[in-house]
Design brief:
By secondary structure, the chain is α+β, with helices and mostly antiparallel strands. The chain contains six helices and eleven strands. GO terms for molecular function: DNA binding; DNA-binding transcription factor activity.
């Protein structure tokens, strides 16, 4: 049971197990490259990653594949937006990046009906959706920043507004997040390092917030 997920916060584990079983929730394993859901399918519930990793993808008309997101943290909820949208099929597909264990929860679990567990699930879901809305707003600011240099500066200042030292994502993941080619990202990071805006030591990065803000304004 993914008791660490925010979705189950404040719910008694025994009551939760009984409730989910009654609503038809099921845990299953998926092999690498197996689909959890495909673009165009009708949503019937949401999913929680228990272990492993999954990727959300978009396939273009010409067949090119774009990775929209990759989830690797146990307890991550995904596919949740669609259970609140009437008759809207998935705009994306979701495939196992590696062998994974998934908990599927049907829509019925989120229908308010006076049950304490259902009410708490709905309340927790609002918190999850709010966090994701904040994440999307922050990402929108980054993507609209203009140059790659500005995108990097915006990302760092969002993560550490007062400056200091932090660990960067892996280059591949950061490039994907910023929607830029990985080689271009590596080159720009090294330029910023040489120019004194940042100090790099492996994946650790140190910067002064006021100096980095010079890039944005």
């Amino acid at each position: 049971m993914a008791t660490k997920t925010h979705l189950f916060k404040g719910i008694d584990e025994g009551k939760l197990k009984d409730f989910l079983a009654a609503k038809g929730a099921v845990e299953h394993r998926v092999l690498k490259e197996d689909y959890i859901f495909r673009e165009g399918e009708e949503p019937e519930g949401l999913f929680i990653l228990l272990e492993g990793a999954v990727e959300v993808e978009k396939i273009s008309i010409s067949g090119n594949r774009q990775v929209v997101n990759r989830f690797t943290s146990p307890g991550t909820v995904f596919g949740e937006v669609y259970i609140f949208l009437d008759n809207r099929p998935y705009d994306f597909g979701c495939v196992a990046y590696e062998e994974s264990r998934i908990l599927y929860i049907p829509k019925a679990a989120f229908e308010a009906g006076g049950e304490d567990v259902a009410e708490r699930l709905i309340s927790n879901m609002l918190g999850i959706l709010s966090q994701k809305a904040l994440f999307l707003n922050q990402k929108m600011l980054i993507l609209s920043a203009g140059s790659l240099r500005k995108k990097i500066a915006m990302h760092l200042l969002q993560k550490l507004p007062s400056g200091g030292t932090m660990q960067l994502m892996k280059r591949e993941d950061l490039a994907q997040y910023l929607a830029v080619p990985r080689p271009s990202l590596s080159r720009e990071l090294m330029k910023l390092h040489r120019e004194g805006y940042i100090q790099l030591d492996g994946r650790m990065i140190t910067f002064d917030a006021l100096k980095l803000e010079e890039i944005l304004f």
